[in-house]
Design goal:
Layout: H1 2-7, E1 10-11, H2 12-18, H3 23-35, E2 39-44, E3 47-55, H4 57-78, H5 83-108
Antiparallel strand pairs: 1-3, 2-3
Helix pairs in contact: 2-3
Length: about 120
């Protein structure tokens, strides 16, 4: 839900690409969020094999309520780090994220479909 709130409508593989979740976990999350009324799933008119996921009005409201709370928690967690330490942490996390994406692509081979 956070990815859709931040980046807008997209297919499930794009969600996988932007998270640390694999296809199975994304699929399960999509099922739960759809059942809860937080997201919609529609056929991509450009490619009928894919589904486009998007937030519903309820999902958007929930996202807008959660994000400020999460940012406050993040700020509280990082409060003891100075600017240099935060920068170093962001650099390391970015490198790990890039490596994780490389590994996921190598192992899973994203074909941009919602199989």
């Amino acid at each position: 839900m956070a990815v859709l709130g931040r980046y807008g409508a997209m297919n499930a593989n794009s969600v996988v690409d932007r998270t640390a979740m694999d296809k199975v976990r994304v699929s399960r999350a999509v099922a739960r969020l759809t059942a809860a009324g937080h997201i919609t799933r529609r056929i991509d008119p450009a490619d009928h094999r894919r589904a486009i996921l998007d937030l519903t009005a309820q999902g958007t409201t929930t996202y807008q309520q959660i994000v400020p709370w999460l940012r406050a928690v993040q700020d509280e967690i990082l409060t003891n780090l100075n600017t240099e330490e935060r920068s170093a942490l962001e650099h390391v996390l970015s490198k790990l994220e890039q490596r994780g994406a490389t590994i996921a692509q190598y192992r899973g081979g994203n074909d941009d479909r919602d199989d």
